[in-house]
């Protein structure tokens, strides 16, 4: 069934659908932004960054899924499915269990602590600033290297084939337009607009992907035919690997329909040990400590809605295996010569890459199978995935920069300044992202999803280890956490350099490998998922050892910051320089006025007033930056005692018996179905 026909391009009907879609989503974003400002929530830090903690479980769950599923998933999951079958789908099933951990273990502690960002939680938990600042910088780096860059690269691939323009000029023009629209959504409305646009785009993504799944399975003759034909989908022009050329690089692997694959180095691309444990480490970091994800759950109106949002996202996470991975496998059958190419010259001719064209699997289906109009709708869905991811990252990254970094530079910044800086930082992220595009284009990895997961395995395990210990072991202290992070970061960066410092030739071209033998042995014998496991336990051991060798943190500083103290009603005493045994090399322990503002204990300053007569230019500036003109003294909310604040924080975790029963029963059902799928495709 191989096909080498020319790829269809978008026509005027498709562009009309795309234009209508963008107009609709933009209207939703601006409307929610207007409502947020009209209600008085948009002009505050809490309203902009946490949607005033008033979100229902449905938009929270939809936003969790949309923030996770970007163009990188559409292209990456389908591409890996085309390359080696269903194994990559195990990443999605693993996330279902981790979402349960998020809703039932992590979110209760985050909500009771009253924090805005994840680095801020560690600052409250350990005191000092060095961990908070380090994690803020690391998070922003990961956003650029794995999230923004990967989504842009995926979107770039789609744009190139959709418009039939492969020049760099058209590529950058298209990306800049998309980034501008995403930035408008983020700047205009804060988290409320982001969550509601995510909700709309999630519906579009699922509908479009379901339609294409049905059409692709129908094109190959159904599910049983898909499984049978996939193992024979090898290109006519191929290359061989091995000492005696015994391996055909163009043939799908024999384990393509299994999740559990050999753990022996070199025998499989996704060893079962790594899929069970290595993926779990990276997933806990991503789902339970990453600002983009956790920020959505922190916007929930109460714990039941937070758990309900996690459950909804978990249910939707069943879909990627069926709507992305299986269509990717179908694409290999339908377009074998192009999608499954292994010869360098052939691949260069088909997709412009010499390492493989599996990343084009989903794009081929969209452009060749779908009719006019519907093709435009799916293009809009792909761009929706891109913008959902980008808007979420832009908003969360601006939160981190504003609350965790800018307040260290400008200790007396007003709320208005914080809002302006947060939105301005979005522009900085856009510039960095565009600059990073050539690096991703020249990446040696032929599977986008594998590239993302490998970087996560090199940098995220230490963070996962420290958060787990911080939340579930009260004896963990600041020196232990800091040096656990530092040791893990150094080791991870060494592996990062070994992995990406040399180009690795694809299958059949091993004779061109110029890496030193020692690097071949280390990188070749230690899978990136196995490395993630080792790095996690090294960081864990260092943190525990140093924590035991240094003084513990007094319990008066831990109220509502750990699992065992989440329901405490005692007033939490902030860790001061006197209490912290980390020396004078880490100054700035006391919470300043800006930090208090970020924690919701400071009102909009009455001194920050606008003149009665405001120019049109200034009015436009205020509109973009979310600054509401002051008509006089700002009305101060009634002050409550620290004891009452502590009591209210603990009561926030209260759940009705009926709601608790529903979410717990639903969680058990979802996890049981997940275990069934693991067993069915074992």
From TrEMBL:
Query: Could you tell me the superkingdom of the organism this chain comes from?
Result: Eukaryota
Q: Which Gene3D superfamilies match?
A: Sodium/glucose cotransporter
Q: Which Pfam families match?
A: SSF (PF00474)
Q: Which GO terms describe its cellular component?
A: plasma membrane
Bilayer topology annotation: Multi-pass membrane protein
**InterPro entries in the record:** Na/Glc_symporter_sf (IPR038377), Na/solute_symporter (IPR001734)
Subcellular localization: Membrane
Keywords assigned by UniProt, alphabetized: Membrane, Transmembrane, Transmembrane helix
Question: Which residues lie within the region annotated Disordered?
Answer: 576-609
* GO MF: D-glucose:sodium symporter activity
Q: Does the keyword Nucleotide-binding apply?
A: no
Q: Which stretches are transmembrane? A: 15-34, 55-75, 95-112, 133-159, 171-196, 203-223, 270-288, 309-330, 377-406, 418-439, 451-473, 480-498, 528-550, 661-681
**Family per similarity comment:** Belongs to the sodium:solute symporter (SSF) (TC 2.A.21) family.
Name of the featured protein: Uncharacterized protein
Q: Which organism is it from?
A: Meganyctiphanes norvegica (Northern krill)
């Amino acid at each position: 069934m191989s096909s080498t026909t020319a790829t269809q391009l978008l026509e005027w009907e498709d562009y009309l659908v795309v234009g209508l879609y963008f107009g609709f989503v933009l209207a939703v974003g601006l409307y929610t932004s207007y409502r947020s400002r009209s209600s008085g929530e948009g002009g505050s830090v809490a309203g902009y960054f946490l949607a005033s903690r008033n979100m229902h479980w449905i938009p929270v769950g939809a936003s969790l899924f949309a923030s996770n599923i970007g163009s990188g998933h559409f292209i990456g999951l389908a591409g890996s499915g085309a390359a080696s079958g269903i194994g990559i789908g195990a990443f999605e099933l693993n996330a279902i269990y981790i979402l349960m951990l998020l809703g039932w273990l992590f979110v209760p502690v985050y909500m009771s602590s009253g924090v805005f960002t994840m680095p801020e939680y560690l600052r409250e938990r350990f005191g000092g600033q060095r961990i908070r600042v380090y994690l803020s910088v690391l998070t922003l780096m990961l956003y650029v290297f794995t999230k923004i860059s990967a989504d842009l690269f995926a979107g770039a691939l789609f744009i190139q084939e959709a418009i039939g323009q492969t020049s760099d000029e058209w590529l950058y023009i298209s990306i800049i337009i998309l980034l501008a629209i995403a930035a408008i959504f983020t700047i205009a409305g804060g988290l409320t607009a982001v969550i509601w646009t995510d909700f709309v785009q999630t519906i579009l993504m699922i509908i479009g992907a379901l339609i294409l799944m049905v059409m692709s399975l129908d094109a190959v003759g159904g599910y049983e035919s898909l499984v049978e034909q996939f193992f024979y989908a090898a290109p006519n022009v191929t290359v061989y690997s091995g000492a005696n050329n015994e391996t055909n690089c163009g043939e799908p692997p024999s384990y393509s329909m299994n999740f559990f694959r050999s753990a022996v180095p070199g025998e499989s691309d996704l060893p079962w040990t790594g899929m069970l444990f290595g993926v779990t480490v990276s997933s806990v970091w991503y789902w339970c400590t990453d600002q983009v994800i956790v920020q959505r759950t922190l916007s929930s109106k109460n714990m039941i809605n937070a758990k309900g949002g996690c459950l909804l996202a978990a249910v939707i996470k069943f879909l990627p295996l069926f709507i992305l991975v299986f269509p990717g496998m179908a694409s290999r059958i339908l377009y074998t010569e192009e999608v499954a190419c292994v010869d360098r010259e052939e691949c260069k001719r088909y997709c412009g890459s010499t390492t493989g064209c599996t990343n084009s699997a989903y794009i081929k289906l969209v452009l060749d199978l779908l009719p006019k109009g519907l093709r435009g709708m799916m293009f809009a869905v792909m761009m929706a995935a891109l913008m959902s991811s980008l808007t979420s990252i832009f908003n969360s990254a601006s939160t981190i920069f504003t609350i965790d970094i800018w307040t260290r530079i400008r200790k007396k910044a007003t709320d208005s300044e914080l809002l302006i800086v947060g939105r301005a930082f979005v522009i900085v992220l856009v510039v960095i992202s565009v600059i990073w595009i050539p690096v991703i284009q020249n990446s040696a990895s032929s599977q986008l999803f594998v590239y993302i997961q490998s970087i996560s395995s090199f940098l995220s395990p230490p963070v996962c280890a420290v958060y787990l210990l911080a939340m579930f072991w009260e004896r963990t202290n600041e020196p232990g956490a800091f040096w656990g992070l530092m040791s893990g970061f150094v080791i991870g960066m060494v592996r990062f350099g070994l992995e990406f410092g040399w180009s690795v030739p694809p299958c059949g071209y091993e004779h061109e490998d110029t890496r030193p033998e020692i690097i071949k042995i280390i990188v070749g014998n230690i899978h990136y998922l196995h490395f993630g496991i080792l790095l996690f336990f090294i960081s864990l051991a260092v943190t525990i050892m140093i924590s035991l060798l240094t003084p513990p943190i007094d319990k008066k500083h831990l109220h509502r910051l750990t699992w065992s103290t989440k329901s405490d009603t005692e007033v939490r005493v902030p860790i001061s320089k006197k209490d912290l045994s980390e020396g004078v090399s880490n100054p700035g322990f006391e919470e300043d006025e800006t930090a208090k503002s970020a924690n919701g204990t400071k009102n909009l300053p009455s001194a920050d007033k606008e003149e009665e007569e405001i120019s049109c230019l200034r009015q436009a500036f205020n509109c973009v930056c979310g600054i509401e003109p002051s008509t006089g003294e700002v009305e101060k909310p009634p002050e409550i005692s620290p004891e009452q604040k502590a009591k209210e924080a603990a009561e926030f975790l209260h759940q009705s018996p009926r709601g608790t029963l529903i979410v717990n029963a639903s969680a058990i059902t979802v996890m049981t179905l997940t275990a069934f799928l693991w067993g069915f495709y074992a």
